[in-house]
Amino acid sequence: MSFLAPWLAIGVAAVVVPTLLILYFLKLRRREEPISSTLLWKRAVQDLQVNAPFQRLRRNLLLLLQLLILGLAITALARPIVETEVANEDRIVLLIDHSASMNTVEEGGKTRLDLAKEQAIRLVKTLNRRSSSWRSFLTFGAAEARTQVMVIAFAERARMVSPFTTNASDLAELIEQIEPTDGQTDMKEALELAEAYMAPPTLTTDKTPISAEVPSKLVLISDGRVANLDQQVLKSGELELIRIGEATDNVGITALRTQRNYERPELLSVFLAVQNFGFDPITTDVSIYVDETLEAVKSVELGGQSADEKQALDDEAGASASLSFELPLNRAAVLEARIARRDALDVDNRAYVAVPPPKRLRVLVVTEGNTLINYALAGQPLTEFPFVTPVEYEANAERRFYADDRSKFDVVIMDRYSPEALLAGNYLFFGITPPLEGFATGEKQEWYNLIWWDETHPVLRHVQLSPVIVSEGVALEIPELAEVLIEGPQGPVLVRYSGAGRHCLVMSFAVEKSPNWWSTGFPVFLFNAVRYLGGATEAADEQLRPGATLRIPAVAGTDSVRVVRPDKRRVTVSPGADGVAYYGETNRVGIYRVDDGVPGRDRFAVNLEDPWESEIAPPTEPLRVGSQEIAQMELIKTATPEVWRWFVGVALVLVLLEWWIYNRRVMI
Amino acid sequence: MATLPVERQRDDDELLSPEFMAKLEQLEILSRRIFIGRMKGERRSKKKGESVEFADYRNYVVGDDLRFLDWNIYARLERLLLKLFMEEEDLNVTILMDMSRSMDWGNPHKGLYVKHVAAALAYIGLVNYDRVSLYGYSDTLAWEMRGVRGRRLVAQVVKFLEDMPFEGTSDLTEVARRFAVRYRGKGVVVLLSDFLDKSGYEDGIRYLLSCDLDLYAIQVLSPDEIDPALAGDLKLKDIEDEDLAEVTISAPLLKKYKQKLQAFCAELKEHCTRRGITYLFTNTRVPFDTLVMSYLRQRGLLR
Question: Any residues with CB less than 8 A from the CB of A308 and at least 6 apart, and which?
Fold first, then answer.
């Protein structure tokens, strides 16, 4: 036997017991009154005790109260149950959505997640009422089949909160500990996790029949904003939904981008998209803060979404707006955009960008002479880009170009030349492999096209590669950890590799070997590559969503990186062999700061920027998983086992009232 | 409460005031039966005797006192007739007073009231040359003054009454048993008590009846007992035996108490009436002279 709410009982006892004791002591302090004889008094009292209840049934308020108390106590003992339509499946999986939209504050000040947890706890207690009922108590719980409940919390990832268990109090405690996240809603992982556990136990002995095939039930507790739910497939069991939340009022930032002016890097352009997801037109101020200081404010007017167009998330006229700001900012800073208006969902009212400092890079080119690179670099805002021949480089490389075993230049371009040894630094190799373990130059290749390239990678952004024909190149043998950015018919063409403080981009052919490329895409590629390697890449270009993994470059020689989360918690992560630490617990929106990190790459902004999560209004159409419509369950008003507490509570109040009346003789 | 009777006694220390005594002179104690007295008194006796009052004649038989022959008759009729005169005898008046602690209570004070009544009755008895005996009892016959006769002893009787303390618990049964054993005469017995005796009054009355007495029972209760002015949560303490009763005074309880009291008195009255005992209930608020001058006369104890 377990107690579902021991603290409540202790609390009530702490109030009631002293009260009763005080009343008891009051009773003891009766006034003493001398009297000639107690003979008649005793007879009268006796008589009253024996006969009065029947004669004064109607007039005796005290008796009435006592009867009422007794009635309540008996009712409580009978364990009253509010009938709910929860079928008693043997195995139930609770899927609790704790994505960003579940942070919406509903009427009464509770968030949707709070309400969802409440529902889950009630459901758990309802399911397990049988296990604590008198019947099972009398049969020592052996005769009753119990409902096993598993709890999974999911946002963009799924986490098992509790495996299958029947212990309602443990479950309630674990459910209570589910924390909000700012992640997206993705049920795929949750469903996979659930299905992995839902398979009935296959471990069988002679006594347990194999045919214990019971259909499990999945109960989804969510606000219904589940992305791509109709693309999921439910393999077994059935899915039911308990839908939480009614609030619709929300304005959110759906995008925030910054870019430094190409000519004047100290000027920062900020682009911002805001959208009204509510039905009423609103006006609000959007302010830009730089390192917590207000820099700019703009007012924006947004129309409401019309109800029938709500499902379409594309920008309706007036419901969304784009804003742009231009700020002078010649240092690294954290830029924050804020919507002044208070609404139901707070997460999307703020967006952050970690702005890197304006940087003019220093580039060293080691080549026998290459006018193409010269021209391409000349057009870039660089401090200097000296050209040296391999002979000059080798002559006094360590003194001229290196300090503290690290390159003095932000980027070193190696054109068809590879030194004997490579010190720490950022390198771009053309037509040759670096002298690093795992790299090797293969046989020559002639006249080929590029087959695949990662156009989302910052290096290849806006770079035209489709018409490129390479007249001559080499095949690359690359280490396992290298990242292939361009692939040709015979293997990788462009790879990115970092390890032991060396960050390399390796191109398998020299620039001049592809005439139609150097005239079109090459300047852009070189610009991207130099900025990427030199660390001048806009951090904001990496769109970090909640749940994304942070790649944190560690300062050479350190074996731990300290990450300060937006909620001020500090986490220590260890960098891997490639000098990069990974941190994946980015479930809250905000700035993740790295203590003593590589300057310029030590702040990471995680933003919601998700219209799907910002759209908090409940869906009008029933949800579907695959082609199957999800049945919606009624909200559970109260968990059934607790009903008796109300009766006992009222009885306790009545006992006190009765005692008071008895002492005061109000009515009789 | 406890100090009140003492004050009252001081204020009202005269058990008998001269005016009241003058009124009492007129009265005498009657008995519904005529008893044989031990000494000559002022009371007509059943016996023919030696008083001046002529009663009858009868024939002389040998041995009669020659002094009572009516010589005038003999002279006229030559027959010896003996003159018979009314015999006047005294009466035994016994007053039994409950002097237990329960009497030391009430406003007006019960015990004092009883003493007043006793003094009045004793005075009447003394004035009429009756043999007056006074007993104060609680669980035994602790105080007694027996066979007092004559007006000159009034002061002594008053002193005796005044000095009697209230102590002990009342036990009428035991007291009546002892009294019946000791009491040899016949006469009037007046029992003054509140009859709130936990061991019951029935046995006591039976013992008293066994003596062939003319019994008067006067129940004295104070207004505080008849209509108690109590309220609240009380621990009622019996002043007689320290018994405690925890009560919460409520309207039904008070009503019940009054019912019980009424039933108790009615039962006592019934008990007495059936056995030829004259029962009189009195509230100490009734002035004791009214009781003596009016009520007792109505009941036939006094004339």
Answer: none
